[in-house]
């Protein structure tokens, strides 16, 4: 039978030296027995341990560094040998960090904490990159960045991206079956009178701001919008000529990537349509899916509902379609007119909201004119018929509004009067013929209706990539503090590299059953910090002891930490 446990510190003297042991003794059948023993060492050893991280001596300080997101993205860059690839295309003879190192740091910064080049050194010093890369924070001045960016030519960017695209496709086994092309622009605050910049041109940006804008064309996979091609172009250039000027480049990229892939379908929207563009795409190795401007094809919109069939058997329960061969830009293609009930409801609600706004404003304007007629309002400049007509044109400038409102402006006693009515028949016609409908065309005549619809719907991947690049918190092109064409091109390239790394990381997590948006993924990872606690060492000339760990993690963060094997990057 066991009895009470007794713990004690026991000394043993061997050849004049005293050694200590911790022991636990128990009475077994009434007799004392040693059931556990741990060697502690000599007295000096015990004192030193008590002063170390496992003892009672207080720490000197703690060093906290950004860890999770930086480590995960750095792993992917290292897997792609990104620095070595860039350095091969942009060699550097002088000492100091290579061009590839500068661009990698810039890309990682755009991913997690976008800032100016002048601030990157301070950011770098607060991350684990300070020990993963053999670089000092003071080497990341804005001038050093500019000096290294100066070495990166447009041809170098194209060469790096071509080789990188081929490497990404092979290393990550990307699905090239559907590739999405689109273009957008980004507003800048570059001075109007800066004549050194031709890429930033004054025009109305796609975000509604009339500033100098820079255009970006992007080709991404439907497989987690991984970018495989990009070009920077003058921001006031329409989509169709942009697409026309890039078709040869897209064909070259096809030949660089497509080994072992027999069928690549290029998907683009109606803004890229033109005779020349579609002729060029038709002669290229790409297959394609595009869309047509519905109002330019009233014959297709007039097809009665009875001729549409449901795509529920194809997994699209809210979609009905009508398929026909038809000439598109003088070439016969497979045309698919689709009706989407969900899209119909969304468009109807949007239009009804806009109709209500205009009815309210028209009523207000009508009452103002009536008060002037009655003499209730006498001061100020009297309204004119031309002025009222201009107001009406502005008010009804939005799509469909001029068709839905019938306006009559007349004069009475030298003053304009306004009468209006909402055209219910025009609204009913719009509901029957246009709302909820999309017109697709393709050369994939052997594809089913469902495959064509799903193929075109994957366009949202490139739209998602653009939204991500306009997110001010991660992968943001803005703000960009460059005002020469060459610097703008390098800056945009760094942002595309950032999108590449984030998209690949999101895809890698998905393959492990973890799904987050890029923003949420980076938020969770950025919340994981490296904490290094520095303890004083023993003796007169103490060497400090450092104990490193990760910060406290939520269950989601712990899942990411383990799945990405981030433990390997903790120092110590």
Note down, in words, how this protein is organized.
With 572 residues, the protein is of the alpha+beta class. Among the domains are: 40 residues, no CATH class; 145 residues, no CATH class. The chain has 20 helices and 18 strands. The strands form four sheets. Strands 5, 6, 7, 8, 9, 10, 11, 12, 13 and 16 form a ten-stranded mixed sheet that branches. A three-stranded antiparallel sheet has the order 1-2-3. Helix 3 packs antiparallel against helix 8 and helix 5 crosses helix 7. The model has no long low-confidence stretch (mean pLDDT 87).
Radius of gyration: 34 Å
Q: Can you summarize the main beta sheet?
A: 10 strands, mixed
Total E-strand runs: 18
Low-confidence stretches: none
Structure annotation, total helices? 20
Structural class: alpha+beta
The gross shape turns out to be elongated
From the N-terminal CA to the C-terminal CA, the straight-line distance is 46 Å
Specify the helix fraction band: 40-55%
Beta content: 25-35%
Which whole number gives the mean pLDDT? 87
Brief synopsis:
With 572 residues, the chain is of the alpha+beta class. The protein has helices at 43-51, 68-79, 82-89, 99-112, 117-125, 129-132, 142-149, 154-172, 239-257, 275-283, 298-301, 341-374, 385-395, 401-404, 424-433, 449-457, 460-469, 485-511, 518-526, 555-563, and strands spanning 2-14, 17-28, 31-41, 61-66, 178-187, 201-204, 210-221, 227-234, 265-267, 287-292, 309-311, 316-328, 331-340, 405-412, 415-422, 437-442, 529-535, 545-550.
